[in-house]
Amino acid sequence: MATVAEALAPKYSGDTRADMLFNWSSDFFYSGILNYIPNSNNTIYYSFNTNNVSRVPWHGSVALNNVEGFNNQQKVATQEALNYVSDITGIHFQYTDDVNQANLFFGNADIVGSSNTMGLTLPYLTQDYKADKYGNVTYYHPMSVIALNKSNHFAYDLMNPVKGNDGYATILHELGHFLGLQHPNNNPNSSNTEWTIMSYVGDRTRSTFSPCDLFALQWLYGGDGLAGNYGINSTYGTSLVSYNTALNQNAQQHITEISVAYLSYFGRPADVSGANYWAENLGNMLPSFSQSDESKNLFGSEFSKDQINQFYLNLFNRNADDAGLDYWYNEVTSGNISAGNLAVSLATSALSQTNTADFFSVYNKLSACETFTWIMDRQDEQIAYANNVNSVRAKLQTIGSTNPVNDADISFYLDTLL
Ligand SMILES: [Zn+2]
């Protein structure tokens, strides 16, 4: 059980791409505090009941007047946004009309003292912890209000939020606050929405989180919700990288073998469905590669020296020497070795020669490929990869013997493809 002091202690990741969105001051939301609700059962209750919205006190110079309930379109958009937040964070959101049970209330209001504001998330109305004599949190019931501003000049979009307009983007921005994200570096005019939807700068019609938001949410919640196995106050703690993978057990066990094959032959990381499929058919994997549509698209249907040269580029970022080309070309065309086996044997032979440039090149690329495949646990990530195979291939070409990339960078890169 966690103590109040632990719940309030800052937990920065050390990576500014996430940390610029965290706030640990009492004035706003403590980032990740939701993980400390005892017995939360990973559920946050939300309500369109406005009884509590009307009771919100002045917050600084801001107050809510003429409170009204959300209309149907706003309710639909809110539920859509909450489903999306669930996919990203793993938090389960449950509707309730009971104002005492709810943690999060939605309503419209004239936001007095801040007419330019589109929406407002008011910090938890109840910060009342109960702790036992050891300081352990025994009770904590957060209650927050998200209000959309009827008097704002974008009020039409706020009253009619749909994906692609700034009404929907505002709901997502406010949910970001509720989840513990602050404006970048505590300044809404820093960074831009391409990197974080918590910024006011740039396109304000995004209907998804941006890469820095995803990075920060991964750190706070670990993808499996409140106080689960990953994230703040969890069994395994925090990480910027998700290893909550969609790979089947065989694929996890043979990830290196599969990754070597994809890297050397196709010059890219394995996709999740490919890895899952070949893990059950490892013996057929290499001979089948040359029959695949991808191989024909890359190399044509006739085996060539160009194809061998491409294997060298995939693995070592350099061209093959002429003697090597002639030798391997004859080996493959005379049927002594398949093209797939050749690609893999180039990789494994380099990996056996430690401390050479070729070794480090393959090692660094292979590590990146394994991580990339391993972290695609969500379907939107797998689709993003399928739509950006060539960009990923080009990215892999930039990794060489002297420049390894760390897992956090790979995770962040994947987020940029979404
Ligand atoms: Zn904001």
3D architecture notes:
By secondary structure, this protein is α/β, with parallel strands linked by helices. It has 2 domains: 4-12 and 26-180, Collagenase (Catalytic Domain) (3-Layer(aba) Sandwich), CATH 3.40.390.10; 249-416, no CATH class. The protein is built from 19 helices and 8 strands. The strands form 2 sheets. Strands 1, 2, 3, 4, 5 and 8 form a 6-stranded mixed sheet that branches. It has a two-stranded antiparallel ribbon with strand order 6-7. A hairpin with a 5-residue loop joins strand 6 (130-131) and strand 7 (137-139). Helix 4 (72-89) packs across helix 6 (166-178) and helix 9 (255-266) crosses helix 16 (357-375). The longest helix has 19 residues, at 357-375. The two termini are 36 Å apart.
Structure described in brief:
The chain has 418 residues and is an alpha/beta fold. It is built from 19 helices and eight strands. A hairpin with a 5-residue loop joins strand 6 and strand 7.
Computed structural class? alpha/beta
Low-confidence stretches: none
Largest sheet features: 6 strands, mixed
- Give the proportion of residues in helices: 40-55%
Shape, principal axes of CA atoms: elongated
The total number of structural domains is 2
- Percent of residues in beta strands? 5-15%
Task: Calculate the terminal CA-CA distance, rounded to whole Å.
Answer: 36 Å
Mean pLDDT: 93
* Associated small molecules: zinc ion
Q: Which series of helices and strands comes N to C? A: HHEHEHEEEEEEHHHHHHHHHHHHHHH
* Number of helices, counting only DSSP H or I runs of 4 residues or more: 19
Strand segment tally: 8
